[in-house]
Amino acid sequence: xxxxxxKKCLMLVLIFLAGRSCLYAGNQxxxxxxxxxxxxxxxxxxxxxxxxxxxxxKAIEAAAAAGGGVVxxxxxxxxxxxxxxxxxVNIYIESGATLFASExxxxxxxxKVQSKDALFFGEDLEDISIGGRGTVDGQAKYFWAPDTIExxxxxxxxIVASGKSQMRSYPVGNGTRTVYPHLxxxxxxxxxxxxxxxxxxxxxxSFALYDCSRVVVDGIYIYTSLHEAVWADGIDIVSCKDVSIxxxxxxxxxxxxxxxxxxxxxxxxxxxxxITVTNCRLSSASAAIKFSEGNNLVIRDILITNCTIFDxxxxxxxxIATGGDISNVVISxxxxxxxxxDWFWAGDGNAFNFELRRQSEWNDExxxxxxxxxxxxxxxxIHDLIxxxxxxxxxxGHPESWLSGVTFENIKFFISSNPDxxxxxxxxxxxxxxxxxxxxxxxxxxxEKPAYDKWESALSLKDIDGLQVDGFSGNSAWPERNLPAIxxxxxxxxxxxxxxxxxxxxxxxxxxxxxxxxxxxxxxxLHEAKVPYQLDSDVKAENVTALDNFLLSK
Length: 554
Known about the structure:
By secondary structure, the protein is mainly beta. It is built from four helices and 39 strands.
């Protein structure tokens, strides 16, 4: 083995010394050597003030004309406008090399659709890659001014009511047509690899991938300011399939990773499906993982595992406002450490947010004729998480479209407040509503200091049909106020078993709602509770069955 490696190394050294740069391309087959097109041989100086775009593009075209190759950026600083990628061409940014997005809008190849403007642009390509250990820098800048954008945003209403400052950040524009370029925009591309490179300070979504397939993103770093980089998502996966994101760190002002179907101006909508996110570290002033409200078709077969989410506002949000569907989602083995950010960021330091609404409801407007319904979510499993948060997790369907087949399992919550926050909308640790077939297994809720005066129950369950709670430990935030640890209201066909009332519990379970029926309490240890369970006057006693429970208090 050692002899083979030595021979390969000597071959590479001889190739480079011969003056014609070549690189070993491991993904092309053992021993395959690709021709390298050094951008300095095409006129790039490696000095930041110089426009390197024409030289880099010449190298790309030369590689494409040769049937493929590596466009090589050696150590240095390169400034460029739009670079059009070509099939079978790999971009390699060496360690010590930085490619800057130009601040001159005139050097960008502006698209007819402005939202497609980008530094790296590719459409209808195959077998392309961007790799190396260098850096791509969008040079985004921001200024602060009073808000003139938000209308129905809850935080805006709270800020206005409180009389606090409505200052917020905006990206700095330039030229007669403002250019907020993505660092990468790819449309309908196949067999894409993005590895190793650092992508920083993007004006817009760092990566925008539309209708792409067989995409591998591995070992990259994405950064935009968590303080001010509005609209600067990390990776937006739009109508793509067969995508893998792994071993990466993404810290972005806006959402880190977004799944969506339905940006009409980019072309036809197709499913967003067959996607994995593994071994990543995510931070965001908005959401670490977002299923976007703009979904108008289907997002399905998504696996997110072995990730850490920290210094974030929201952990996971599933939202639909344009009638789409989300299904077959598994989220597992995650740690979260969440807190609130400035008022103009969506989120409340909350771990989970499921929300189905019509577009008119989203905008607080009257319903529009012919607008899509509220969408649907089914078959979502979330398990094995440790969550430190400040806000309430709200898992809501819609009165006209209930969530179905939702499971939360092995979740530990630690909830605290922030007295310095300009707003706090938290009420319960987890609130569930409009759900069929809901399973909660081994859920633990811990209230921590500093506390919030308006906190109530650990679990609030309302309008649920088909509920299984198997293993719960926790209390209300303020047991001395006779608040229940678990509140049921209009719940049917429910089994609650293996629950433990912790010491100091006053009221453990409150059951309400005239429509509530078929509630079964089996094998619970509630002896620490002064009142194990309480029925409201509108609940018939025969609708609640208690078997083999340890109910007597000490």
